[in-house]
Amino acid sequence: MNSILDSLVLKIKSWGEQQSVINYILQTDVTNLEQFKENLSLNFFIATKNDKALIKETNWLDEFGGTTRKHAANHGFCSFAKATYENGFKLHFVIVNTELNKLGATYYNIENLEDSKKLLVNNMVA
Known about the structure:
Layout: H1 3-17, E1 22-27, E2 41-48, H2 51-56, E3 67-74, E4 79-85, E5 90-97, E6 118-122
Parallel strand pairs: 2-5
Antiparallel strand pairs: 1-2, 1-6, 3-4, 4-5
């Protein structure tokens, strides 16, 4: 993988490990990283105890580089956050609240996720 991409993924991993409200972060497009592309989009899945905090205040997206554009919104079942960075990269985050009783938090248990995804953060381990 490209060193710029490695650095970006490590920033996301480090940030996620420091956030007490985050259960998991998965990188959902690991096969796309085999080639370095200009304007590359990376996709992540965040399972969190508080999606509202990540949607209301989008400053956390600046942790990964200088942003030229960012947007976050709740769409009921899940939320989305997107950012475009000065280096041309685009990050997309699907954010799911694991505390919602109507969804059943066990649905987002790590054992239910596909093997093709790359687990970056697992804050559920003791």
